[in-house]
Amino acid sequence: MRSSTKCIALSGLVLALGLYAGVARAADAAAEVDARQAAMKGQGKDMTAIKAYIDGKGELAAARTAGSDLVERIGKVPSLFPKGTSMTDLPGKSYARPVIWTEMDKFNAQAKTAADKAKTLDTALKGGDMNAITTSFGDMGKNGCGGCHEPYREKKPS
Amino acid sequence: MAAAVATNPIAKRSPRNASARHVAAGIILTLAALAAVPAAADDAAVARGAYLAAAAGCDQCHTDSKNKGTPYAGGRKLASEFGVIATPNITPDRATGIGGWSAADFARAMRWGIAPDGTHYVPAFPFPYFARLSDGDLADLKAFLDSLAPVSQPRLDGAESLGLLARARAAIGAALGNASAPPPLAGDAAIARGAYLVAAVGHCGDCHTPRTWLGAPDAGRYLAGSHGGLEGTKAPNITPDPQTGIGKWSEDDVVSLLKEGIEPDGDFVGGPMAEIVRNTARLTDDDRRAVALYLRALPAKVFVRNK
């Protein structure tokens, strides 16, 4: 009798812990997605500042700050995609396609490509040559940002 | 021909009693010049057609880019509202492409969605938009496609795999889709050009306009956003509604999106639009601006969910 009570209590405890862990994990995952989306918005802000300079609407100094910020942010992209944060894990919140986690090597390689392009853009900004800046900006956008968004992002989070 | 020889500068310069060799040379040069005239006209048509094909993004669907397929040779499996469609080969291969097609065959396929064998295409092929193409542009497009190297690419299962109901729907939708009036082309020349690029050549509504249950574009919701975009994606509202559309975008914002893929917040488009930007990046600045002017001149509509 005693042992069965103990057993029930124990399973109750395990169940409660399990539920707690599950809820905590979901909350963690949601927080991860928030952080990821904030990081992406930050990168967008950097790109806007660089474009403003190219279009003659912003200062070079601001574009340079954005360039080095972009390099730093893009380097962290692979760490922003922990397991359990896809659009199927968190429908209506995450828009990251599950294929990211089935081809993580390819995804990381694409992130590396984006990081390299960000460095090229940063170097061009430091150099100050408008042609180099415009070209590397276009390449960064289309093949860096777009290179990941095209296969891996379902839609833009609003 | 005699008149042509007479106006040939070489023939003119020849003395009256020139040797037969000189006259022969003059005739040969004249013939060569005459032969070159239609060829030069063809080159111009091919170049114009190439530009139109880029603006229309033909290669986007008609290339199996995932498997490194030859451009325009088809074979891309496309998830559409009508099921999975394998896109056809539009290179001029006679057996597996459109090599044997007459101008009339091409026009019927482009404007009415009917293949030379009488079968109907599903409206994932944007014939309701191409129906608005001018005769000249249609001819230029055909000249361009005919200039491609023929590729033998056997037809994969396409519309054949769709259910009878889907095909019947498509056939009726096709007929009605062509009956719907084209959107108003008001305003100056640039806006009219933008209207033609958006509503005919670029067939933007193929993704950005929801469809009626028959599969035809819903004219009342023109460009107001749809959940039925290519590959099952959501295509946003591109009318100037400030909340759900592009009402807060400047003309330059639209131009930048079409040129670089950048949105006003520094985000870069993904999904099918990233592929489209590769083509809109090849347009002239004037044409991108014309598209922007037209979109911003449209009546604003609010995006309706589940439409």
Calculate the mean pLDDT score of chain B and round it: 82
Using only C-alpha atoms, the radius of gyration of chain A works out to: 22 Å
Low-confidence stretches of chain B: 1-18, 33-37
- Write the element-wise H/E pattern of chain A from the N-terminal end onward: HHHHH
| DSSP strand content of chain A | under 5%
Summed over residues and divided by their number, the pLDDT of chain A gives a mean of 89
User: What distance separates the N and C termini of chain A?
Assistant: 57 Å
Helix and strand content put the structural class of chain B at mainly alpha
Oligomer: heterodimer
* Largest sheet features of chain B: 2 strands, antiparallel
Order of helix and strand elements from N to C terminus of chain B: HHHHEEHHHHHHHHH
Outline the secondary-structure elements.
The complex is a heterodimer of chains A (158) and B (307).
Chain A: H1 2-54, H2 60-75, H3 99-102, H4 104-127, H5 130-152
Helix pairs in contact in A: 1-2, 1-5, 2-4, 4-5
Chain B: H1 2-7, H2 9-13, H3 20-56, H4 58-61, E1 77-80, E2 83-86, H5 103-112, H6 127-130, H7 135-147, H8 164-179, H9 189-201, H10 205-208, H11 251-260, H12 271-280, H13 285-297
Task: Provide a descriptive summary of the structure in words.
- The complex is a heterodimer of chains A (158) and B (307).
- Chain A contains five helices and no strands.
- Chain A has helices at 2-54, 60-75, 99-102, 104-127, 130-152.
- In chain A, helix 2 packs antiparallel against helix 4 (104-127) and helix 4 runs antiparallel to helix 5.
- The mean pLDDT of chain A is 89.
- In chain B, a hairpin with a 2-residue loop joins strand 1 and strand 2.
- In chain B, helix 11 crosses helix 13 (285-297).
- Chain B is globular and about 50 Å long.
- The interface between A and B is medium-sized, with 26 and 21 residues.
Attribute tags:
heterodimer; A: 158 residues; mainly alpha; 76% helix; elongated; B: 307 residues; two-stranded antiparallel ribbon; 13 helices; globular
